[in-house]
Amino acid sequence: MATIKFGEFAQLLYPYCGQGKSTHEFVVTLTNKFMLRPGVQLGDGYINPLIEADERSLKYYYTGEREIPDKIRSQIMGRSDKVRFEQYIKKFTDNAIQGIVDDLEKKGFSVDIGNVEKKCADIMNDIILREIYEESN
User: Which helix H or strand E contains 32, and what residues bound it?
Assistant: First the structure.
């Protein structure tokens, strides 16, 4: 059974989707791309609570040294949009998408060029729900 946690998934995607951002900025980008209107202010904060997280915490989430807290994952999940995440993955070059496919396959996932954006959205969804994605073969 293939499994992956948020930090591993972020590290897998970073070479293809990082676009020169720092790793802590990339954590915010990944969660933003998974949410509807993440940068909109809601009361005293943003819809995506990671926008205001400190750099050190974001780096810990990226490296996997810490999990995203349940409260924050719940806030993200409440505004989740898998189609938006699929569109985010789909916009990258064919070479980048093939690289994602290859790296996911190395980790034991069943994926191909025709379903990689859906697979990535499913992985992100399950990670935010449970902090781990498990694929049974």
Answer: helix 23-33
pTM of the entire predicted model: 0.90
Domain residues of the chain, as ranges?
A: 2-135
Helix axes 55-63, 6-17, angle to 10 degrees: 100
Q: How far apart (Å, rounded) are the C-alpha atoms in residues 76 and 128?
A: 7
Amino acid symbol at 17: C
The DSSP symbol for 68 reads: P
Low-confidence stretches of the chain (pLDDT beneath 50): none
Neighbours of 71 (CB within 10 A): 9
| Backbone dihedral angles phi then psi of residue 80, each to the nearest 5 degrees | -70, 150
- Which residue from 107, 106, 93 is spatially nearest to 4, judged by alpha carbons? 107
What are the structure tokens assigned to 91, written together?
């916009």
CA distance 77 to 105: 26
